[in-house]
Structure formats: C-alpha cells, structure tokens
Design brief:
The protein is mostly helical. It has 3 helices and no strands.
Length: 122
C-alpha cells in the first residue's frame, strides 16, 4: 500500500513536472517565433530605408549643386558674383604690427583676376 502511494505521488509529480516544462517550452517556442518575426520585419524595413537613403542622397546632391544655388541667388536674392574690382587691397597691418614682413603682398583683386583668367582659359 505504501509502495502504491509513493508510486502514485511520484507519477503525479512527474506528470505535473512534464506539464510545467511542456508549457514553458511552448511559451519559449512562440516567444522565439515572435522575435524572429520582428527581426524579419526590421530587415525588410532596413532594406527599404537603404533604398530611400540613396534616393534622398541623389536629391540632396541635385538640390545643393553650386550651379543651382547660384541661379537661385541671382533669381530670388538679386545677388551676383563678386567682381575683382570690388575687392580692396589686403592690408597685413590690420592683423600684424610689423609691416616689413609683408612688403611683397599683391593686391587681392589682381590675384582674383589671375585666378579667373586661368579658370576661363581652361
């Protein structure tokens, strides 16, 4: 009789233990599946975002091209390129007390003219 009771108690214990572990494994399986689904969705969104990034990058390059910005400034702000004749001579004494070191400075307008003429000749 005692043996039957011990066997019955151990059977009930193991059945409950199997039920608990089975329930835990069931929960774990569906948790993993849920996480895998979220990872799959995140990867798809990442691919879409990479495609959009390339599109936005191309649009940004077109919008910020120097030629376009120059046309817009002339059209809307009535701004034009600075002419060399508008520039003044660089005076190093403004920044330095010794003028003797900077005797060989050229006029800034002459340098700009040289640069622009070199650019036009290319």
């Amino acid at each position: 009789m005692l043996q039957v009771m011990i066997t019955r108690k151990s059977t009930i214990f193991f059945v409950l233990l199997i039920f608990v572990f089975g329930s835990w494994l069931f929960y774990l399986k569906y948790s993993v599946m849920s996480i895998e689904d979220r990872i799959r969705r995140a990867k798809k969104e990442l691919i879409i975002e990479k495609k959009n990034h390339h599109i936005l990058k191309a649009e940004w390059k077109a919008l910020t091209s120097p030629e376009r910005i120059q046309k817009l400034t002339v059209k809307h702000l009535n701004m034009h390129q600075v002419e060399p004749s508008q520039l003044l001579e660089f005076d190093p004494s403004v920044f330095h007390s010794e003028k003797s070191k900077y005797k060989e400075t050229k006029k800034l307008s002459r340098l700009v003219k040289e640069i622009l003429s070199a650019k036009d000749s290319d």
